[in-house]
Give the backbone structure.
Amino acid sequence: SAAEQRRIARELCQIGYTERDVIGLIPKPLASFLLDVLDKWLAEDRSEPAVWAWLALLSNDRSHYYRGLHLHPNDQTLLTGAIHTALDEAAFQMHHVQDGGFIGDTEDAAAAIALAAEYALRLDASDQKRSIISEISYFKSLLLAWKQYRLNDPQNSFPEWCRAKGYEFKFQEFKAHRD
């Protein structure tokens, strides 16, 4: 029955969501089954925010966080997933700045950081919120430094320029979030 399939999907997805390494171990036929159950679930009932987060995780389509937020604008799991998705977009664009390159457009990165900041305002007060706000601040600072660097027609590499200006960035630590 649909109720039994949802119960099974809930149990497996909750394990996968709390223990992220498990997601990579799910066999393809089981992942397909779970995605089918989640898609049908949302087609019939969109009232449970967790289903959107599970779908984002299993399908590797992070846009489900944003879609879920349209219906559940203050759900903490969806907000956190959307924030990490936006920061991942910015991080991807900036992950070659230490080599003097910027993938994409600085305005797109700025928009992604601003979106993360907007969503962070809706998070409940917590250590996680403080950590996210710190990360957003870091990316804002890095992007601002990059823009200043590019305007000054520098002779040194970006890391050298940053050191000379007293900026401290961790250039090798750009890794995608695992929500």
